[in-house]
Write a structure and sequence with these properties.
By secondary structure, the protein is of the alpha+beta class. It has one domain (2-83). The protein has helices at 20-32, 41-45, 69-80, and strands at residues 2-6, 10-16, 47-55, 58-65. The chain has a 4-stranded antiparallel beta sheet. The longest helix has 13 residues, at 20-32.
């Protein structure tokens, strides 16, 4: 399950079925440009910080910056959910 909503500082996303450490590693790869996704670098440049927390297979992602859920939802789904851990 993937839910995303706007916050006053950016967006907050919740993912079920994914380990927080795996999601954190994927986000770090995207931030460094060392990923195989189609990350939009213009959108990535608007992000000032990303925080990943969670327990078990429940992951919470807080993205701070000049971004809206409508702008990054599809990119996040492709980059994060497209590579579900076995």
């Amino acid at each position: 399950m993937f839910n995303i909503k706007n916050t006053h500082e950016g967006v907050h996303a919740s993912l079920t079925g994914f380990k927080p450490q795996a999601i954190k590693e994927q986000i770090e790869a995207c931030q460094s440009g060392d990923c195989e996704c189609a990350c939009d670098m213009e959108t990535m440049s608007k992000i000032s910080a990303v925080e990943v927390t969670g327990v078990g297979e429940q992951t919470e992602i807080t993205v701070k910056g000049d971004v809206k859920a409508e702008e990054i939802s599809e990119m996040m789904k492709e980059c994060l959910i497209g590579k579900k851990e076995a």
